[in-house]
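Subject: L-asparagine transporter structure
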Amino acid sequence: MVKKITLFQLIALSIAFYGSIRNIPTVASVGWAGIFYMVCAAIFFAIPISLVAAELATGWPQEGGPQVWVKAALGPKWAFVTSWLLWVQMFFGMVMVSTAFAAMIPYIINRPDLANNNTFIVITVIITYWIITLLNFKAHFGKLISTWGAVIGIYIPAILLIVLGLWYSFKIGNVNLGPLNMDTLIPNLNSLDKFSFFAGICFIFAGLEIASVHANDIDNPKRNYPIAVFVTIFLMVIFNLIAALTEANAIPADKINLAVIIQPFQIYFNALGIPWMTNILALMIAFGVFAQLNAWVLGPSKAMIKVAEEGLLPPIFQKRNKDNIPVTFVIIQATVITLVTLLYVVVPEINTGFIMILMLTTILYCVVYVLILLAEIILKYKMPEVHRSTPVPGGKIGMWITVILAFIGVITTIIVSIIPNSDIPEDLHTASILIQVLGTIILVILPLIIFKYKKPTWKKGDVLNEQQ
């Protein structure tokens, strides 16, 4: 008999999966308004999508997650679009993570000025990602660093960020945050450029539907899974807010570098009289980010090669090496990531390029969430007989309330992602809008075109028969 996961274990597992300090500067950059954004992100994004994903995952537990749910509700065409978008959004997500890695190197070598040097960042990102790609052609490589990377580069820095942030804030008092009142807590909704930070904060919770795969493995899932969702998201909101508000107090808002996680640590360690610790922690964080990047290289590609073998992509996409690595997908990833990274060459500020990439990634993920929410509605009525061990609480009325909340959050996130925020110079507003709109349209239409013109001979079995 397989031992069930306890409620505490599921909460710990979820926090370990989502816990990251990579997005803290984004929350810090809006000061007290971060409270408003985080609460809205939880109510209109994280909680409802988690509950919907749990119901779908326990009703359709087959490997594949979102694409399986969408296929059951909307058919293979939109399942392919879902798989495709989950793959291509990783290109932009990995550029962001690679940028965070590249921004650590200057602090390791005592050259913090290089963290804002576009050329240095571009070269470092491209070299790093190609090294990780080549190393992953040997399947065993990833297992060697993932666990230690998480402990050394994510958990220890996260605890230090909160402890040191609180200590520094008590030491210096309220310097940069200013007073907490309705004007500082609630952003000016007439100024949509500020409200666009909501999209970046929602991105903290992107991917949370993956935790739903554990819903069937928990004791009393109908009761315990919703509790785990609420507790996990509550703890994540508290952690992010403490870390972000203490950083916002330590650094003026216009000086916060969204891609440089180490920035507040430098201030804290200097205040403690141990500036050399900045170098050590930068090395630790760089190792953690490297491990995270390494874990992401193969995941999306392994999912996509299964799609290719079903006959939805030409045979060249089905190529594997002797270690069973999906060669074509991995090479395409590295190539596209290289091209996307070159955006930093034409955009003068690292913050500006980082935000543009973040917004496009968020929009693509939100399109997937729209498909997941539609799948929830359709399957609730189309296949009511399918047992869901973790249904959305409240029956069909509860489902509609949950889905409407999620739709409000997802659609709002898409809209505000398109609007250039205050960190993007006016002369780049048009370029930013074009990147978001055209990028989304092209990347959604492309899989629809591929699906329309797919050939029966693309299916793996048919390819092998032809070769024989």
